[in-house]
Amino acid sequence: MNQRETDLIKIKKIITEKDSDGAYKKAFSFIHTYEEDEEILLLLCQIFESDWHKNHENMAQTFQYLSNPITAETLFKVAFSDFEYIRWNEYFPLQRKCTWALADIGTNEAKKYLEQIAQQANETIAKYATKRLVKWDFEFRRKFPTIGESRYEGFEIALENYSDRLKELAQKGQDIIGYVMKNVAIIETAPPYDGKVTEYIVLYLVNKKSTAATITESQDLKKPDYSSLKTNTLYLSFLSIMHDYSSREKENQESVLALWIKKEVFKEILQKVTPNWNPDYDYFGKELERQTIQLDLNEEDFEKLIKEKIDFVFDVSDFIKEQKQYIDQNQIEKLMLPKERIVDFETPELIDEQWM
Question: What pLDDT does 149 receive?
Fold first, then answer.
């Protein structure tokens, strides 16, 4: 009998005997040991929902760390629990931990559970869920794998599986598709501590490897210098730049750079230049019926409209090459892409600090 079989017997015994001490002493370690084991996690979820122990808050916190979607339903159920031993606490710390855990799971299912909690739970618990929903887009670093440089004021790109992208984006139509990152900055130092939402959009540009190195060094020194950038086709779609880069990688075009500019600035750019609508691509480089935009600017327009407006640059060449290997090896289940969506240009809102 191997260790897993032994532990499985122990967990079932804890449930059968309603062993409060066993749940307190062993549930935490079991969750960490079997993070991806569906059978064992479902049994641990059964313990989590039970009223014969007092280890719920520790388990909720551990489920948050785990962020496994299989725990979403049980977290939702416990958010409505009324365990007698903590009924006295008007702040509902267990339920609050459940909303945090659902937020960190970050799936559409988890979001729907939060929406139900916000609509159906008592006022205090509903407010916890509402906070997480308001902050949903800002807490992407907690929900998804990312690429980028967190030390640079959080300029990162959230990733998703290719299969998830297919569910979210239509295969036909004509839309501006790209990656938008939201940041919040506190603009009032006294109540109500309002926060200003700043949205950035990512553009992709092929340039020389030496240019990428120079820019990275200047940003490391906190003296960003983008003067060496040369104009080239600007893409919003990652699959489009991935296809273009793979098909024409050559000297002086060795690096793909992700350029962050404010979304409101990009909106102004689109009012000054005419974008080109071209077919987007699937992972294998096949043209789709869906079209998205690219910009082909001369040096003068690139200098004035793009280069002077850049907030950050990051080299994504190695990431592209890694994903290309998965495609070449037909390991599409490992393919990760930026979490791109249809871009809208509504004005960013002010967020009251009570929702932060």
Answer: 63
Cα distance between residue 35 and residue 23, in whole Å? 17
Contact assessment for residue 205 and residue 234, using Cβ atoms and an 8 Å cutoff: yes
Report the C-alpha gap between 251 and 181 in whole angstroms.
31
pTM comes to: 0.71
Q: Which residues of 108-135 are buried (b: 16+ CB within 10 A; e: fewer)?
A: eebbebbeebbeebeeebbbbbbbbbeb
Lowest mean pLDDT among 85-89, 92-96, 131-135: 131-135
Q: How far is residue 215 from each of residues 89, 219, 304, measured CA to CA in Å?
A: 53, 6, 18
Are 142 and 104 spatial neighbours (Cβ–Cβ below 8 Å)?
yes
Calculate ∠ Cα 207-228-254, nearest 5°: 20
| pLDDT at residue 344 tops 90 | no
Question: Which residue type sits at 331?
Answer: Q
